[in-house]
Amino acid sequence: MRFGVSTFVTDEGIGPAELGRALEERGLAALYVAEHTHIPVKRESPWPGGDKLPRWYYRTLDPFVALTAAAVVTERLEVATGIALVVQRDPIVLAKEVASLDQVSGGRAVLGVGAGWNREEMRNHGTDPRTRMRLLEERVRAVKALWTRDEAEFHGEFVDFDPVFLYPKPVQSPHPPVMLGGAGPTTFDRVVAFGDGWMPIYGRGTEALADQIADLRERAGRRVPVTVFGVPPEAAVVAELEAAGVDQVLFNLKTLPEAETLRELDLLAGLL
After folding, report:
1. DSSP states along 196-258
2. CB atoms inside a 10 Å sphere around CB 233
3. How far lies 57's CA from each of 54, 78, 99, 258, 264, in Å?
4. What angle (nearest 5°) sits at the alpha carbon of residue 84, between those of residues 177 and 53?
5. Is the Cα dihedral 139, 8, 110, 239 positive or negative?
6. Rounded distance, CA 39 to CA 114, Å?
7. Is 265 left (phi over 0), alpha (psi -120 to 50) or beta?
8. Cα 104–Cα 105–Cα 110 angle in degrees, nearest 5
9. Per-residue pLDDT averaged across 76-95, rounded?
10. How wide is the angle at C-alpha 100 spanned by C-alphas 58 and 120, nearest 5°?
């Protein structure tokens, strides 16, 4: 089993380069960073994590800038989005960004994706929340086409472009893994249809995780990689997830200044 962290990299916490270096020094294998372009002041969408939305949600650095900073000071660390809000991103630009990150990191990029929960935020990007799941699928499929074809084209309901050249191509073959977030009733449909792995959040629809993973892999006809977010740093929980068939756990790392973050990472390293 592999171990990493998921976090919000902001202007008020440890810098991404310092964080990446500290993770690799302590034997952690992955850094997954969250994305929010902004948070509307007037918000009606309920936050799945509770009543009050933490301030770090609206102070995040751009994920690909942060991950590039972490990548250039490390050699082995997996650099990933957790999650990239694809329904708020142009797919051609997204394909370019992830392929560039994969080049800069020497093949260590992972694209974790989701459709998001903040309807006001996505509306500001011109996205209709009612069709965001269909939009998510089309944009992911378009990105994969851009990564893998010399003359890529895509013609769908939301994404439409004639043959184009887009370089660089990713280092990884056939492309960086696309991990699907969520644990809703149709999540597995999306993972099987156009994803390369599953990324649920611990405790949100994961109460029967072993059965869920077995069902997903049976439906897919392959061993779908599973990464679990927000795992408590407890040996018993880690053992439970390993027995369920989880490949990687991500401990939630609070957004803190550098000295406090390093102390938290030392505690995690002790657990490992």
Report:
1. SEEEPBTTSS-TTHHHHHHHHHHHHTS---BEEEEE-S-HHHHHHHHHHT-SEEEEEE----H
2. 17
3. 6, 23, 26, 19, 20
4. 140
5. negative
6. 17
7. alpha
8. 115
9. 98
10. 25
Number of domains in the chain: 1
CATH number where 49 lies: 3.20.20.30
pLDDT, tens digit (0-9, with 9 covering 90-100), for 225-272:
999 999 999 999 999 999 999 999 999 999 999 999 999 999 999 988
Question: Is the pTM higher than 0.90?
Answer: yes
Q: Are strands 160-164 and 152-155 parallel, antiparallel or unpaired?
A: antiparallel
- For residue 106, give Cα distances in angstroms to 25, 67, 76: 18, 13, 9
Domain residues for 9? 2-271
- How many alpha carbons fall within 13 Å on the CB side of residue 266? 6
Question: Are 6 and 58 in contact, with CB atoms under 8 Å apart?
Answer: no
Handedness of CA 77, 78, 79, 82 (dihedral sign): negative
Rounded to 5°, angle at Cα 183 from 182 and 187? 80
The C-alpha atoms of residue 114 and residue 66 are separated, in whole angstroms, by 19
Cα distances (angstroms) measured from residue 270 to each of 14, 68, 262: 20, 27, 12
Contact 145, 153 (CB under 8 A): yes
d(CA 239, CA 50): 27
